[in-house]
Amino acid sequence: MRAHHRHPHLRLDTATLSALYLGGNTLGALSAAGRVEELHPGALTTTDPALSWPRAPHGLEIF
Fold it and tell me: How far apart are CA 54 and CA 19, in angstroms?
């Protein structure tokens, strides 16, 4: 592997990335809330589909 020296297109913390990974949030909504900073124009639009999930999260647990 080689290291690359490209600049990031988005800036977000691990809590925000976790919220995206778990689902129920969109990158656009989190950006509007001030939790994502777009460092490269168009990065939100192109990245949002990759981090979106059409199903809402749920915790199904039966006792």
Answer: 14
